[in-house]
Amino acid sequence: MGWLQVLRGRVQQKGLKQVAEELGFSPSTISKVLSGRYGARTEKVQRRVEALLSAPAVPCPLWGPLSPLECSSKHRWAREVRLRGTGNPETLRAILRCRACPLRNGGVK
Predict the structure, then answer these.
(1) Could you read off the pLDDT of 95-109 as tens digits, one per residue?
(2) Which residue has the higher pLDDT, 83 or 22?
(3) pLDDT tens by residue, 23-78
(4) H or E stretch including 12?
(5) For position 87, what pLDDT does the model report?
(6) Please, are residues 66 and 58 in contact by the beta-carbon 8 Å criterion?
(7) How far is 85 from 89, CA to CA, in rounded Å?
(8) Distances (CA, A) of 91 to 4, 78, 99, 101
(9) Beta strand 58-60 with 64-66: parallel, antiparallel or unpaired?
(10) How far apart are CA 70 and CA 51, in angstroms?
(11) Is 6 exposed, middle or buried (0-12, 13-18, 19+ CB in 10 A)?
(12) CA quadruple 84, 104, 57, 2: dihedral positive or negative?
């Protein structure tokens, strides 16, 4: 299955706004890519779809096997909590482990 079919299927399942947020693009960008009216190159969107929606699970040392999308979501959560400077000791340990993960530093972003 090609990346556009994967993207279309995800949008049908989750909705345009949620998928755009998951991928880090605006809903209008995703809509234009899907309709073939995007005025720029689509390689960046393609790479994000392939990395986050089409890739196999990653072995997270903290939470166990995660899809790349779940990994990215957990990492964003850890970063937001760290920036706020809030959280209990368990949460703070999780943040530090997530930040030090070799998959984050050289793999899924």
Answers:
(1) 777 777 766 655 444
(2) 22
(3) 889 999 999 999 999 999 999 999 888 887 777 888 887 788 888 878 877 877 77
(4) helix 3-14
(5) 67
(6) yes
(7) 11
(8) 36, 8, 12, 15
(9) antiparallel
(10) 12
(11) middle
(12) positive
Report residue 3 as tokens: 């990346």
pTM of the predicted model, to two decimals? 0.62
Token pair 């960046």 in the structure block, residue:
44
Q: What does the alpha-carbon distance between residue 10 and residue 104 come to, in Å, rounded to a whole number?
A: 24
Nearest alpha carbon to residue 71 among 90, 52, 97:
52
What is the C-alpha to C-alpha distance for residues 71 and 57, in angstroms, rounded to an integer?
9
DSSP 56: P
Residue 27, classed as helix, strand or coil, is: helix
As given in the structure block, the two tokens for residue 105 are 């530093």
> Which residue type is seen at 21?
E
pLDDT for position 3:
92
